[in-house]
From TrEMBL:
Taxonomic lineage of the native organism: Eukaryota, Viridiplantae, Streptophyta, Embryophyta, Tracheophyta
Organism annotation: Rhynchospora pubera
F-box domain boundaries: 15-55
A Pfam family this chain is assigned to: F-box
InterPro entries for the chain: F-box-like_dom_sf, F-box_AtFBL13-like, F-box_dom, F-box_SCFL_complex_component, LRR_dom_sf
SUPFAM superfamilies linked: F-box domain, RNI-like
Protein name per its UniProtKB record: F-box family protein
């Protein structure tokens, strides 16, 4: 067995405690805790980490483990320690036996360390704690549970808010109503990044903010007797938009308006697209037509006769003057391919194009439909299939030439009026 070199210097052991604690803060807390067995010096260093994760494991004693970890890291923490509590991540298990009083007491103690980042995961009911959470004025980012179901909680409509330093907010309560979302966004004057999941049960959703730069808006399934008519976004600083529907038809939205002049990137993902949604989808594309990058993901339901879901025949098609990159994923049957090519004629700055054929799901209503009506009409690619088409570096004449061939094969439906406006006339 080789002996250790007596002249070898322990560089890591020479590091000051403050630097070691900073290094440990990049590790998950359960991993950092294992360093306590290395030597006496490391026995308590991990407890001073500015980034903490409180988690539990499944089993009969998970609550005891959580209590012990919280006591060491939060309740016994020295407030005069030079390392402030910058980040606190709490992972609550499903069907947690932890009481609301204990979680409230834990957050109250954590607030004394002026945390900047707070993340809470799990299915624990947090309604009674929201007033306290939104009163932590030191927070710069806040993430609350997602996907906890409509039976869990309804976001309080008159929630007092004092965390005006908040820049990033992820709010996944499934029953956040439109009125609460409107007030919440308007009162957070420093908010820049927003993830919001809306329970669409109101007629109008209005989001107005001067500071938001990035928005991910998810509209969940609404009640059968509710309608979602108007979407108004007044976000003059917005640069990136992700709009998504889950289990809800977007066709109920009759009006989309607002101001997003600085929009650079847009992602549109519709979970269930129907032929009657075409008016709302076209209005949304017109609203974001000045974006430089656009990704469309439309899952079309297959129990109806195929029809256009991007633009209506004979209707005005918006120009996309700044669009350089376009990714489209949908069922490229005859009508949809015509609509996409019609759109491409109004993209003079396009540099990259990717088309992916997405086969809709068959349902009981689709029995007897002809599968050939839903087959891909994309041109056969180099792999010998019609599932996708890709064009890159369109500024190159060689690639541009191949791209123009693709357009010429399907351009018989295009017609122009005397003033030059482009319209679609399906074959």
């Amino acid at each position: 067995m080789a002996m250790a070199d007596p002249d070898e210097i322990d560089l890591f052991g020479m590091l000051p405690d403050d630097l070691v604690v900073t290094i440990l803060s990049f590790l998950p807390t359960p991993v950092a805790a294992r360093t306590s067995v290395l030597c006496r010096r490391f026995r308590h260093l991990w407890e001073a980490s500015p980034s903490l994760t409180l988690t539990t494991e499944s089993g009969s004693d998970f609550a005891v483990n959580f209590y012990n970890m919280a006591d060491r890291l939060i309740f016994e923490r020295d407030p005069s320690h030079p390392h402030p509590l910058l980040s606190l991540h709490i992972q609550l298990p499903n069907y947690s036996k932890l009481t609301d009083y204990y979680i409230h007491h834990l957050l109250m103690k954590a607030r004394s360390f002026h945390p900047r980042h707070l993340t809470i995961e799990g299915s624990h009911s947090l309604v009674c704690l929201l007033v306290f959470i939104f009163s932590i004025d030191s927070l710069e980012s806040l993430s609350l549970p997602t996907g906890i179901g409509p039976y869990r909680c309804l976001f309080p409509p008159h929630l007092p808010i004092s965390c005006h330093r908040l820049r990033t907010l992820s709010l996944g309560f499934f029953r956040v109503d439109s009125a609460s979302a409107t007030r919440l966004v308007s009162e957070l004057c420093s908010l820049e990044d927003l993830y919001l999941e809306i329970y669409a049960r109101d007629k109008t959703l209005t989001l107005s903010s001067q500071s938001i730069r990035k928005l991910k808006l998810i509209i969940g399934a609404s009640d059968s007797d509710s309608k979602f008519h108007t979407l108004a976004l007044s976000l003059p600083s917005l640069e990136a938009l992700h709009f998504e529907t889950r289990g809800a038809s977007f066709g109920q939205c009759h009006m989309i308006h607002g101001q997003i002049p600085l929009l650079k990137t847009a992602v549109v993902s519709l979970d269930e697209a129907y032929a009657e949604d075409v008016t709302a989808v076209a209005a949304l594309l017109n609203f974001i037509s000045h974006a430089g990058e656009l990704s469309l993901r439309l899952k079309e339901e297959r129990f109806l006769v195929p029809g256009p879901i991007l633009f209506e025949p004979g209707k005005y098609v918006p120009n996309f003057p700044n669009l350089k990159r376009l990714d489209v994923s949908l069922c490229f049957h005859d009508h949809n391919l015509d609509s996409v090519i019609m759109m491409l004629h109004n993209c003079p700055a396009l540099e990259s194009l990717k088309l992916v054929h997405k086969i809709p799901k068959f349902t009981d209503w689709a029995q007897g439909r002809k599968r050939k009506d839903w087959r891909s009409e994309l041109p056969r690619n180099a792999d010998g299939n019609r599932r996708y088409a890709s064009f890159t570096n369109l500024h190159s004449w060689k690639n541009k030439k191949e791209f123009m061939k693709f357009l010429d094969k399907k351009c018989t439906f295009v017609r122009r009026t005397q003033n030059g406006d482009l319209y679609c006339q399906l074959r």
